[in-house]
Design brief:
N-terminal domain of TfIIb, 3-stranded antiparallel beta sheet, 3-stranded mixed beta sheet, OHR, KH_dom-like_a/b, OsmC/Ohr_fam, Peroxiredoxin, Ohr family protein
Length: 135
């Protein structure tokens, strides 16, 4: 049985073109549509960038936890997460697709095992449907 060990919350009042902030005051950002989506704010972050950053840091932590159990002594676990936003016109729907890559000094078979087990461990990965993960 899972036990809650942490909780946080954020509020956004006007979607992608406004302020988003955590309720504890630690984060406050003005978001903007990227130019690729017809926006004019290349200097503002967007939800996909925030998701990519969160997923990358969470997956990297999962890699450290799993590698320790497997007996690998990793000094770092550089994870690159790529987030794609896909849209469907009729019926209107949006979907994220995520690419995950790990750069680590291990033999290929061990690196693949590490990725698989880390994917099974990472809370962000558990939220994604298998069809949304791009290896």
């Amino acid at each position: 049985m899972f036990k809650k060990v942490y909780e946080t919350a954020a509020v956004a009042k006007v979607g992608r073109e406004g302020l988003v902030k955590t309720t504890d005051g630690q984060l406050s950002l003005n978001l903007g549509f990227p130019k690729a989506m017809g926006g004019s704010h290349s200097d503002r972050l967007n939800p996909e960038q925030l998701f990519a950053a969160g997923y990358a840091s969470c997956f990297s932590q999962a890699v450290f936890a799993v590698s320790k159990k497997l007996g690998h002594d990793l000094k770092e676990a550089p994870i690159e997460v790529t987030v794609q936003l896909h849209v469907q016109e009729e019926p209107m729907a949006f979907e994220l697709r995520v690419g995950i890559s790990l750069t680590v000094d291990l033999p290929e078979a061990k690196a693949k095992e590490l990725m698989k087990l880390s994917h099974e461990t990472c809370p962000y990965s558990k939220l994604a449907k298998p069809s949304q993960i791009i290896w």
